[in-house]
Amino acid sequence: MSDAKRKALKKIAKCLELGNSANINEAAAAIKMAQTLMRKYGLDQEDIDFISMGKTTSETLLPSSISDAVLKIIRGINTRFGVECVLTNHKGLKKAEFIGDANRAIFAAFAFDIVYREMNEHTGQFRNSFAGTGTSQTELSRRLQSFTFGWLEGAMAKLPNIAPDVDNEKKMKDYIDSQFKNIDRETFKQQLRDAMKGITDDYEKGMKKGKQVSVNRPVSGARELKRLR
Fold first, then answer.
1. Considering the entire predicted model, what is its pTM?
2. Residue 223: predicted pLDDT
3. C-alpha distances in angstroms, 72 versus 136, 139, 148, 173, 183?
4. Which of 21, 25, 162, 196 is the most exposed, fewest CB within 10 Å of its CB?
5. How many CB atoms neighbour CB 139 within 10 A?
């Protein structure tokens, strides 16, 4: 998108905002100006829709090989916040980038960082609880996986559920197509569907721990991670 077109979109967004004014004359003038700008720059409704769209990258650095647990976090956040995630390369590692309504994308990336950090903390504590018990590595791995998925189930249930707009999915797809190239989204979605496997009784223990997680929306763009009980 050219700079001129981007500037025009910002002007149109401002005009449309003024179009909701209680002052009838002011609202009419603003709408007329928006229509004039749209004709001048050849903009259509799809361009206007893009005004509210945005993308926010999480601060968390992820391994180049993404685990099932991370995929489950992404799936939960996508569903809860009405966003979509793409994994971008970062110095040999990866970062999760959330796309959708700009405000939702910011909140989704913020929530991802909190959930990922808390998951690692609690699963680490659970793993350490087996020290000196003689539990085999195979059994420990099986139980740790169940605990982790249970924890994530509980954590996802605590996240706010922001219902997306009816046409939100199409807008996101169009926005992603305009911003990213050569992303194999179907393969990624299949990975998400295949993520959950092998449940043990530790699933319930993990779920109880996961339900302790809470997130607060960052204020004024602040990205400090918080954990509230």
1. 0.62
2. 44
3. 26, 22, 10, 21, 19
4. 25
5. 13
